[in-house]
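Appendix B. Chain record.
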Amino acid sequence: MSSSPQVLVVGGGPGGASAAFWLARQGADVTLVEKKRYPREKACGDGLTPRAVRQLVDMGFDFDRPDVHRIVGLRSYAGDVMLEMPWPEHSVYPNWGATLRRSDLDGRVAALAEAEGATVLQGVEAVAVVENGDLTGVELRRKGEETQVVTPQYVVVADGSLSRFGRQLGTYRRRDYPFGLAVRGYWESPNSTDGYIESQLDIRDREGRAMPGYGWVFPMGDGTINIGAGLVSTFKGWKDVNTSRILDAYLAELPEHWQIAENPISRPIGGKLPMALSVGPKTGRNWVLVGDAAGAVNPFNGEGIDYAYETGRLAAGIIVDALATGDAATLSRYDEALEAEYAAYHRVARIFASAIGNPTIMHTLTTVGLRSRPLMEWVLKVMANLLEPEEQGMAEHVYVALERAVSLPGLRRIKA
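Structure tokens predicted for this chain:
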């Protein structure tokens, strides 16, 4: 790269690749820098919801490749209850999802951005140059090469949940918002072509005691399955629980149809997920946060890929407008757009995360609620953020019920 691009995207995951794609498609001179090289591992469930699928379809992603496994719905367990629910029909989103390893997915989406005209640099670390609190440039560091300083007009910060670049700019996570902890690994399974992802909402240890958290299985269609466990910071005693212990307990009770071997293919890895757009500020004079760097993870289900694609696309459109007008104040529209699109939903999701941290409420949800198929099918739509516009009013009734629930004695409250 011989000169500074108009826009520099820091991080080549879903949010960064999406931003680079839409910036390039709309004519911006954009460079994406990724610290590692594709393919690289991520602590992720590898699942693509209908919202994520829609974004990828819009970018021209090829879902007919043999290593993309289609998912038709969700299978949930709690105690002796099991319920299978297909993805709902929707006017905007497809009625199917997919699984694909992040180690393959991210590089392919970055390649789509490159095909649109974006420059993609791998093995390049971006370090903010900050003077008097203002981002004035970016150092690009390659191993064994001289550091280069670029001065883009705008920077998209998309370097993940830890976001070292964002912290250099003064971003921080709200401590009164929930965050998640998760761990996942891969196991061989003869049932890897199953069309349902699976969740376990009631995990017990060997003594039969309830453990905070939940488990999942994502069939990969290639002879392997992604098995993981997670918990949210609203669960009682979460600080004293190691997610690996939850995963071990889940593996001990895993349904027999998966027929897994005792040991995983490789050592499981874990990560931390800031949720509900809990990281801010989202914009500066010449920069924006997208994806996990902004905490754009759904507190209902820990899903972040779809929101990374969406926020990256949203930021790209606003930056293109700022480039066209020459008015950096245009970036403030990004905050307004995030508020309009996600604030109400994440407010309820935060309340839900608070509610399920109460053992009484969690027990009710998993033993009573799961026995009502119509209720659970509607809950799936809410949790996956797949409500139709005309259904938003119906959701208000659930919102009110959740708000009443969080007033129960002994419940750890998350501010809405």
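Further analysis of this model is presented in Appendix C.
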